[in-house]
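Write out this protein's structure.
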Amino acid sequence: FTALKHDYIKSMQSDLASSFKFVLEPVAEFLDYFFQPHVSDPPSYIRDSMDFINKLEGKVIPHNAVILTMDVNSLYTNVPNVDVRLIVKHILLARPTQDPPTFVLMQLLDLILEKNYFRFQEQFYFQVHGVAMGSPVAPSIANLFMIDFEKNILFGFQDKSLFFVYYSLFPIHR
């Protein structure tokens, strides 16, 4: 009986996870449509080494300049969902037309952020922090967070900084 019960639960989990993927993937793609215009071309984003060289062209770098680097560890799983909600709400409320209504898109975002189920080695897991890496909207959410971070935190030092760029392992769609 225990083995049969275990197989039945496994079967239910598989069906449940399949239905989540079926339901949430189109929702994530739908949300990504509204996020893409805001992540498509941030001024500090670099595509590759050549893009970086082109952005450096014409810049005069003082001999006493200090070069700083920053690496975000496990960005997707560390994106603070509370901040993401605020960032996204601000962006959505600024749309010239509210169709679909912002509250509807925010409810869909909550669904994506709160139902972070993913499959790894035939096991299903519930991710409690950040955004699930396989979600079609995950790169946009991560980039929206980093763009906001850059704007509000890093550019606070703009009077002392000469130049700021970042490279994303998850390319921004254009």
